[in-house]
Amino acid sequence: MSKKLFVGAAVLLAALIGRPRVALAACMSDDDCPNGGSCVLARCVAQDGSPCTTNQQCRSNTCSAGVCITPAPSGSPCSNGEECQSDICSAGVCIARTEMLLSSGPSANRVDLVIMGDGYRSGDQAKLTADAKTLMNTFFAQPMYAAYKNYYNVKLVHVVSNQDGADNGSLGQLRDTALGAFYDCFGIDRLLCVDDNAVLSLAAHHAPEFDKILVVVNDTKYGGSGGAQIATASLAPGAPSIPVHELGHSLFGLADEYVEAGHAHCDSTLDCPEPNASVFSQASQIKWNRWIDASTPVPTPDSSDFDGVVGAFPGARYFSDQFRPARNCIMRSLGANFCPVCQEAGVLTTYTFVDPIDQVTPPGAVNLIPTQSQDFVVQGPRPNPDTMNFVFSIDGTPVAVNQTGSFSLAGSTLGNGSHTLDVRVTDLTSFVRRDDGQLLESSFSWPVTVSTPACSFSPARPGSPVTLGALAALGVAFGLRRRRG
């Protein structure tokens, strides 16, 4: 094929696959391109600093202010997002698209919480980071979250909106935001929703490891929501408590504990599905009865005499004839802590995402001789205070109980043959009184083989250093014996 036909075919192919029609010279090599350009896919592209009108004209695929540029890394000065690798220029500086606010372990064995902002313009991204940290600090100030902070990773994804606020919020009826936040969702003024598809698309690209997503909305009108995957919270006064409440729905499956019209009543036979609401008023039927002292009346009067007591208080899940575990809880009032029943649900749910064991050393079967020892170590997240308990057993018999997660095995303590070293890890936390699913436990087994090496002697070649050395040693030995005898 001639050079002319080759170039013509390449140009035609580019047109057929929808390549933008720009004034680019066809080429077969860099020599065909003017001004130091490069030949890429049979078209000339310009180097940085060359004039341009479209991204396709630039080798870097970035045309900014009529000039080809290579986007800069985070921390570099900028005048617009096109100049940055992350596409985000905030207050004259390129910033990263994502930042880790808390990193406590491998994503595969942690609760991965992702925070995004909506209604934050390019110049508001530092504010988004500050707001996210404030919310996170309030989140982990809750006693249960504080104890299990090592079980969580938190990543912030920066999202740039054209305008601040949210639709129907404090700044007007319509706002141009990246995630489409809006109040009056389903006709409820304070219910704050977002475009779920936009949120999940961003998460899939920038935080595919997410377990739950919290969208912080840059609007001071009170509002929030807690869906199965996505929770939202505004920046209203008292805002740091809003995401704690909403993630109580999204993360732990908790019910609201206040009375409000417009909702469906729980089934009077099957009970409410949430762990903190019940239709039953007899202690024996209440799902959290393990927390109710025998001296506590059930139903429990809604009186200050029963502050801090677990019982069955009227008013839960929007109806006055349904019951909640405590007189006050953050699922009822912002600023409160989770009640003991909600804390238990939180710990149990956390362990559906996190196994008590991250890794073990050695990772598999072990071979020992009687004179050898082997250290076995179990690593994993630890609550604070540490309530993890490790039981090591050999062939079914417990041999060590500790909190260190380590055990040293001497081959001399076992007979020759095959053995099994087991470890069972259990969180003995007081936050949980019943673990029907054994979520707070995990185990691992090491096959251990002990064998005594057979003695063997292989004569060395005559004249070798080993033979002479051996004879010399024997001579010394005999000489010592003669001198002693």
Could you write a compact summary of the structure shown?
The protein has 485 residues and is of the alpha+beta class.
List keywords for this structure.
485 residues, alpha+beta, Collagenase (Catalytic Domain), Immunoglobulin-like, six-stranded mixed beta sheet, five-stranded mixed beta sheet, 7 helices, 24% strand, flat, disordered C terminus
Description of the molecule:
- There is one protein chain.
- With 485 residues, this protein is α+β, with helices and mostly antiparallel strands.
- It has 7 helices and 22 strands.
- It has helices spanning 3-16, 125-139, 143-147, 196-206, 241-250, 340-353, 465-484; strands spanning 38-40, 43-45, 63-64, 67-68, 89-90, 93-94, 98-102, 111-118, 152-157, 212-217, 224-226, 230-234, 310-316, 319-326, 359-361, 366-368, 373-379, 388-394, 397-402, 406-410, 417-427, 441-450.
- A 6-stranded mixed β-sheet has the order 7-9-8-10-12-11, sandwiched between helices. Strands 16-22-21-18-19 form a 5-stranded mixed β-sheet, with no helix packed on it. Strands 15-17-20 form a 3-stranded antiparallel β-sheet, with no helix packed on it.
- The longest helix has 20 residues, at 465-484.
- It is flat, with a radius of gyration of 34 Å.
Principal-axes geometry comes out as flat
CATH superfamily of the domain at 90-250: Collagenase (Catalytic Domain)
CATH architecture of the domain at 90-250: 3-Layer(aba) Sandwich
Give the number of helices: 7
- N-to-C order of helices and strands: HEEEEEEEEHHEHEEEHEEHEEEEEEEEH
Distance between the termini: 102 Å
CATH first level of the domain at 90-250: Alpha Beta
Output the strand order for the largest sheet: 7-9-8-10-12-11
CATH topology of the domain at 90-250: Collagenase (Catalytic Domain)
